[in-house]
Structures
1.
Amino acid sequence: MQQCVASLYYGKWEGGKHACVDLTGVSPLARFRENGFIAGQAVLKAESKKVEKHAKACEDNQHAFVPLTFDTFGSLAPEVVRFLSRVQRVVHSNFSTPQGRGFVFSRLGFSIQKGMAAQFVARLPAILM
């Protein structure tokens, strides 16, 4: 049995199952020369690949799989919008102060920035490092 690979786990997501949440950032210009540029296409393709790769393993382990895919231009996959809407409802119902509400989204923003920085550093020529 394969393990469910995830960036984070979220308890009681759908039908009482825990969710394996996979955070993925992509560049919409990565395959620009091959297919031309279509806004949002890179996000949808990356989300589809993540589902193909990880959904079955998560399902075998009685978990839901939630791909959170975004691109460097700010496009979000539909599942990301659904996930963030749900997180926002939970945060607003459990935190009475705006500072508490902002914590979750600032952590998420930091995770996205960290992933983007890793992608940029990986593409730097060796001489610059």
2.
Amino acid sequence: MGFRKPLDGGWGWVIVVVSFFTQFLCYGSPLAVGVVYVEWLDAFGEGKGKTAWVGSLANGIGLLASPVCSICVSSFGARPVAIFSGFMVAGGLMMSSFAPNIYFLYISYGIVVGLGCGLLYTATVTITCHYFDKRRGLALGLISTGSSVGLFIYAALQRELIDLYGLDGCLLIVGALSLNILACGSLMRPLESSNSPPPEKTCVDKVPDQYFVYREKGKSVEENISILEKGYVDEKCMNHVSDYKQEGVLAKSVLSSINVNEKDSYKKKVVEQTNFCKQLAKRKWQLYLNYWEETVVLFKNKVFSALFVAILLFDIGGFPPSLLMEDVARSASINEDDYHMPLISILGIMTAVGKLTLGILADFKWVNTLYLYVTTLLMTGVALFAIPFAKSYLTLAMLSGFLGFLTGNWSIFPYVTTKTVGIEKLTHAYGVLMFFAGLGNSLGPPIVGWFYDWTQEYDTAFYFSGFCVLLGGFLLLLAALPCWNACTSQSSKLPPNTYSYKVASSA
């Protein structure tokens, strides 16, 4: 069933507002986890690599479960998923305030909160893409700034709450604030599938699907009649079709005239039920096979394959600064008098500016969004290489702002994915890509923390991070070069909504 043509306005702007606040409330604390990360280091006395797993799981587990999140949104809709996920995020934050050790935080903060954020992210992005087409870049840029504004505000808010109420009181208050997600989710009205609802299936249309397996086996009239007697046709539908009722009465009369042994009748019922279950299992298995076949087809697209490598390497190298920048400043022995604003807050507000700016740029016809995304990757890699040379608050603040702006490329990533595979395959493709993004988010901070535990300095860790991001950017650039499109110019074989990146067309 296809969706109605996107509105590019109207209730779509309400969707943008509630999606903005949804991401603000759910991602505020996990993205600003660097503030509580320092407190957990002091509270539990564990190593940096081990403690970093809490924040990396919170930001990565939801993305790792993106295929499952996509299935949930496709099956139940954005509104129910958003409301349920609101309870998960709030409950996980409140449970974390009672954590006796770091392992409890892996479950309460890492998995429960992280999975709730993943469900909310998929729900907000999917429903926004359904409501917008021409202004999709702007809409995605606006809603994605919610998490960045949340990072900016929650970094200062959590630090203030810790000073006033301690770490446990801070997590309880932040969890209570997350309950506002329920109100936002209730406003996510789904886009109608068509102008007029499709006609309801008649009883005659429903019956063959329910005993199709028996007709295939060439059963006798007696056996087919006995199946009709089982009541596979529902009672309401029987009232609507009088002709079929007459057929059922005739069937019963024929059945009454035939003397069937009770034992044979019982055996027939067992066989029929077994065949029905087998057919149901075959259909479910076929759906499972179709899912993997569609995934294989996606990876035959060179740009999509390069995207999954790039997003994995980008999150391994690009995510650790948002979690560890506060500890980087502390390790550099920066004077607290020079510490005018948390570095995470600077990173967060510049991420919001970057998301909005890049989202607006993506709507211009002369801008190739894929090359714009590649440019942000390459510049991020260069900035990561510069972190070991920053020995003052001013240089770290400038690098945090620059990295934050470039991290705003998250706002155009759904746009790039949509143009690559089409809106019909967005949920599937985006779920697969977010799985690899979550893997990178989960591995990045612990790897950087382990480098520090091993070398007692962050220089080697950020050299490694910069190399990962640069490698992903170059691979994606190579996949998008015009020479590849010249070799595969059979665009007619592509699905109707698939976009093939060409330099000439975007110039």
3.
Amino acid sequence: MTRGIKHRKKAKSKNKGSKKEGGSSSSLAPQIPAKVWRPGVDKLEEGEELQCDPSAYNSLHAFHIGWPCLSFDILCDSLGLVRTEFPHTVYFMAGTQAEKPSWNSIGIFKVSNISGKRRELVPKLGTDDSGMDDGEDSDSDDDSADEDEDGAQGPNLQLRKVTHQGCVNRVRSMPQNPHICAAWADTGHVQVWDLSSHLNALAETETEGVQGVAAVINQDPLYKFKHKDEGYAIDWSPLVPGRLVSGDCNNCIYLWEPTSAATWNVDTAPFIGHAASVEDLQWSPTEPHVFASCSVDGSIAIWDIRLGKSPATSFKAHNADVNVMSWNRLASCMLASGSDDGTISIRDLRLLKEGDSVVAHFEYHKHPITSIEWSPHEASSLAVSSSDNQLTIWDLSLEKDEEEEAEFKVKTKEQVNAPEDLPPQLLFIHQGQKDLKELHWHAQIPGMIVSTAADGFNILMPSNIQSTLPSDSAL
């Protein structure tokens, strides 16, 4: 049950002198032999420092919007359903965790000119592949929008803010109408906002709302509902526009049904089936009346809103709090969950009646799992973030192949020997952020992941994330 930001500190707009451990890039290769470093296992000796390998990324950028954000969402846009060419543009909304309740806001922002470079899975020998595009330094710090004074090289950040009373525990955009936003507040309120005017303003200009000069706008929410306690769990239905569920720390789940484009009927009789706080909620990607919930009581419950206020089924999922879960949109029988003990479990819901539905279980992370999400483009891939400051990407279709590994090492003259105890399904490890809280894949830009932490946001595109999407010539 790892939730809030440990040390709330407003990021400074100019911090070129600082470098994040493991997250900053350098065009200079280390002079000593490289080795894989594992948090919680390996220790840094005196004089050693972590260096990011920029050749591991097609794109890597960092930015912040002031106060840290516990939660954010990537908005669907009209710029193209499948975008593969740099530079990219992305729209977000996020909720702050400010020092004082009155200082909080919902940020609506646009990050444009996200540059990068496509890399070969097997680099050609004798080529210098240490940097990003020629003449462009793509450090995860130096490329930050707030540090790029002329905006010519790094990403450009445009920001608008709406006043929000209290810290934002979680924020979600309606998939069918991305300008509609639901936000969980630490005051116990769930509020729904129409942010269309701000998104339209960002789309029409390249200058308004630049970070550092964005005014905080007072705006009333479309609708507000008060739970008996604060909460974190919330999810929009991907099948029924406007249908919403919200769960709180008082074990209660409430169903929101839209009565118009701007009003909802919230059933005052909650769904009750957990013995402790409801931590996350996920609607089924194929069944409009079915959703799942996970709880501090270690269980996952499956509900059918047509069958009353008790779960259709419930099962023990982990030996500790179940913090987060994700329902696979491409393979709807698969449900992933992450626990406070650092474990990740993958279940095939078709096997529930047989007793053991776990098809994969990983104990790589040693600290609480804070976010988990299936890839929207690859049914076997998912991304995970943890309190150990690691963002990991997994591909369940991978198996250990010693012959293939030996061939790869010969082709690349690879000198780094990965630890033997790493799971073969572990595809990528991203580090450099402190107190990671949430991540999302971009549904319209294959291979792009965005994460938020106490020290801001990262946009990353690992070079070894391959998609089954058609090649550029076929698009």
